[in-house]
């Protein structure tokens, strides 16, 4: 993992220095090296493990959206939760996110699933686990990533003011249960997956609520409209 820390965005590199030096991260690095030596294909590629942090510096975080694992299909994952590369079929949960955006803010669904435009505005699109083996969902759970991303969330909670946490599903709600609701806005709903979206994600209006909170606290709201050409981000 040392090669990724060199390129990591500077504010996160400083904030998480003790995590990278910890025994669990050294064990995680050894696990990933062994996986590669065994010929396993790991997603996303190494330079994108920390893409969410690279695109959204600590001081710029306005919204946190938590996912669980990267997509495990070839060519999908690129380091941002719910997001896929340009040209990749939009996953079902993201289709539902777009539907709610349209209901909430009147934004027509994008023709692609590339969410870097959000990340560059301060939306931290963070998975709990940052790597996965191809075609094996949840294959890297319990190897140390969860401790690392807990530390990321804690840094946002402690060092930032007036952040919106969108916690979709019980997993995300448990993971961020310690967030200080006297300083931040915590929005909760079921997960946007097709299995649960109709049980409270649709109609939750989290996007307009997030922007109203940001504006009320003197912060620029998020432009949730994605560019028609994802390569132009």
Automatic annotation (TrEMBL):
<dbReference type="InterPro" id="IPR002043">
    <property type="entry name" value="UDG_fam1"/>
</dbReference>
<keyword id="KW-0378">Hydrolase</keyword>
<dbReference type="GO" id="GO:0097510">
    <property type="term" value="P:base-excision repair, AP site formation via deaminated base removal"/>
</dbReference>
<dbReference type="GO" id="GO:0005737">
    <property type="term" value="C:cytoplasm"/>
</dbReference>
<keyword id="KW-0227">DNA damage</keyword>
<keyword id="KW-0326">Glycosidase</keyword>
<dbReference type="InterPro" id="IPR005122">
    <property type="entry name" value="Uracil-DNA_glycosylase-like"/>
</dbReference>
<keyword id="KW-0234">DNA repair</keyword>
<dbReference type="InterPro" id="IPR018085">
    <property type="entry name" value="Ura-DNA_Glyclase_AS"/>
</dbReference>
<dbReference type="Pfam" id="PF03167">
    <property type="entry name" value="UDG"/>
</dbReference>
<protein>
    <recommendedName>
        <fullName>Uracil-DNA glycosylase</fullName>
        <ecNumber>3.2.2.27</ecNumber>
    </recommendedName>
</protein>
<feature type="domain" description="Uracil-DNA glycosylase-like">
    <location>
        <begin position="54"/>
        <end position="214"/>
    </location>
</feature>
<comment type="function">
    <text>Excises uracil residues from the DNA which can arise as a result of misincorporation of dUMP residues by DNA polymerase or due to deamination of cytosine.</text>
</comment>
<dbReference type="GO" id="GO:0004844">
    <property type="term" value="F:uracil DNA N-glycosylase activity"/>
</dbReference>
<feature type="active site" description="Proton acceptor">
    <location>
        <position position="69"/>
    </location>
</feature>
<dbReference type="InterPro" id="IPR036895">
    <property type="entry name" value="Uracil-DNA_glycosylase-like_sf"/>
</dbReference>
<comment type="similarity">
    <text>Belongs to the uracil-DNA glycosylase (UDG) superfamily. UNG family.</text>
</comment>
<keyword id="KW-0963">Cytoplasm</keyword>
